[in-house]
Amino acid sequence: MKTMVLAVGVLMLSMSGMVFAQAETPVIDQRQANQEQRIDRGIASGQLNEREANRLNKQEEHINKMEDKAKADGVVTKGERARIDHAQDRASRHIAREKHDRQGKRHQ
Fold this sequence. Notes:
Helix content: over 70%
Structural class: mainly alpha
Shape: elongated
Number of domains: 1
Largest sheet: none
Number of helices: 4
Strand content: under 5%
Region (Disordered): 39-108
Number of strands: 0
Keywords: Signal
Signal peptide: 1-21
């Protein structure tokens, strides 16, 4: 009886460990951190004005919410990863576009 209880306990612990391992998203997290740094550098260099930075930060918050929803059940599926990756691609394009537009570089 003790071995059965012990075996069930070990099985439950190993399965919960697998669930947490699948819910980890280091690539998504690293990319998110890189994009936030790009926004911060754009603000510091004057390439982004306050309005542009707020819009980009709001987009980053949306991606964070998408990731949180995907992690809520303990497993991030391929479809969820694809949606998050697509949103990050779009955010990256927006950051590049806003940093390299003529706005904010006017000389008076």
